[in-house]
Amino acid sequence: MSRAASHDTGRARILVADDEPHLRRILASLLEGAGYEVVHAEDGRQAQEILAGPIPLQGALLDILMPGATGLEVLAALRHLPHRRDLPVVILTAKGQDADRQEAFKLGAADFVTKPFSPKRLLARIHELFPPS
Fold first, then answer.
1. Whole-model pTM?
2. CATH of the domain at 80
3. Per-residue pLDDT tens digits of the chain, which is 133 residues long
């Protein structure tokens, strides 16, 4: 289920799309603790719906292996959306094959992070890519 603020808090808003509820909660806690607002997507289809909509986003974290649509499919689709064409995207995945990494960067991913990851390093990278407001 997606969770978006009904009012603008002035904080940078990041989409977290991962089909693992436990990881979504960990990422949300990490990001919210660092001053970000988080919008959740449980699968690739829900991520695509959120990205196609009007919710302002400063970045997205996409898992590769999700039902509905993979993170790479979501990334490819969002690059065709005029209002999301330049959105910074970090691919998070347990699937660290070179072919996936190459495809992610070819589609315009800002970074490719394999699970398990260091929360401290991930947050530092997120601060670089989508600075909190």
1. 0.90
2. 3.40.50.2300
3. 334 444 456 789 999 999 999 999 999 999 999 999 999 999 999 999 999 999 999 999 999 999 999 999 999 999 999 999 999 999 998 877 899 999 999 999 999 999 899 999 999 999 999 887 6
Name the domain count of the chain: 1
Q: Which residue range forms the structural domain that includes residue 104?
A: 13-127
Identify residue 41 by its one-letter amino acid code. A
Q: State the Cα–Cα distance between residues 125 and 128, nearest whole angstrom.
A: 5
The secondary structure of 54-103 as a DSSP string is S---SEEEEESS-SSS-HHHHHHHHTTSTTTTT--EEEEES---HHHHHH
